[in-house]
Amino acid sequence: QKEVEQNSGPLSVPEGAIASLNCTYSDRGSQSFFWYRQYSGKSPELIMSIYSNGDKEDGRFTAQLNKASQYVSLLIRDSQPSDSATYLCAAQFGNEKLTFGTGTRLTIIP
Amino acid sequence: GAVVSQHPSRVICKSGTSVKIECRSLDFQATTMFWYRQFPKQSLMLMATSNEGSKATYEQGVEKDKFLINHASLTLSTLTVTSAHPEDSSFYICSASRSPYGEQYFGPGTRLTVT
Fold first, then answer.
1. In terms of C-beta distances under 8 Å and separation of at least 24 residues, what long-range contacts does A5-11 make, across chains too?
2. Residue A97 has pLDDT above 90, yes or no
3. pLDDT(A15) > 90
4. Nearest Cα to Cα of residue A72 among A3, A18, A6, A2
């Protein structure tokens, strides 16, 4: 069974610091990876997608993928209180459904 | 952009009645739409996948006769919860994708309460 694992947290980071969120996946054949942000009581919002090894940057967010080690991470620079949310990692192998992790709860401390 | 809407955002119904939830992709054509359910403090649970013009594919353990899904067009999918019971109370979220394997964009969700 394909699995995506995340540290449930909570992860507390001071405002202005870098928040680092990690995710590992069990299926070496997974090809597509996504990070979603979910505020309490709201639906998930797509932040980043990454398909190739290396880094992908979008504003304050950087996704990093290492297929050999089967991990994907999300870095949030200059963390803001509005970044406080649960972050969901998802992996997809070929034409199969997305497999979501259980999420990491991030709290930015002012 | 990739905007997905859901209606209603919140619904309360009596046990035994049916509730229909609409999911629309507003600015793109969604070949595939997905329906999820999320209980408090739990992760998303995929209920079913629907492709435009064909029958939905249900996940194991999801009753297809209870959760009716129709994907009549490239911008609209509906989920009908038939004969709802209190245990069906949950947060129902749809997502839409331009292809079966691409990025999924989520709607804002529908909070269903069955009394």
1. A5/A101, A6/A87, A6/A88, A6/A89, A6/A101, A6/A102, A6/A103, A6/A104, A7/A104, A8/A102, A8/A103, A8/A104, A8/A105, A9/A104, A9/A105, A9/A106, A9/A107, A10/A105, A10/A106, A10/A107, A11/A104, A11/A105, A11/A106, A11/A107
2. no
3. yes
4. A6
- For residue A38, give every residue at least 6 positions away whose Cβ sits within 8 Å of its Cβ, in sequence order, or none: A44, A45, A85, A86, A87, A88, A103
Of B77, B80, B107, nearest to B95 by C-alpha is: B107
Calculate the dihedral angle through the C-alpha atoms of B9, B13, B19, B20, rounding to the nearest 10 degrees: -20
User: What pLDDT is stored for residue B52 in this prediction?
Assistant: 84
Is pLDDT at A66 greater than 80 in this prediction?
A: yes
DSSP state of A83: G
Residues recorded for chain B? 115
Name chain B contacts of A94, Cβ cutoff 8 Å: 101
Quick check: A75 contacting B, CB < 8 Å? no
Nearest CA in chain B to A46: B105
Confidence class for position A30, pLDDT limits 50, 70, 90 = confident
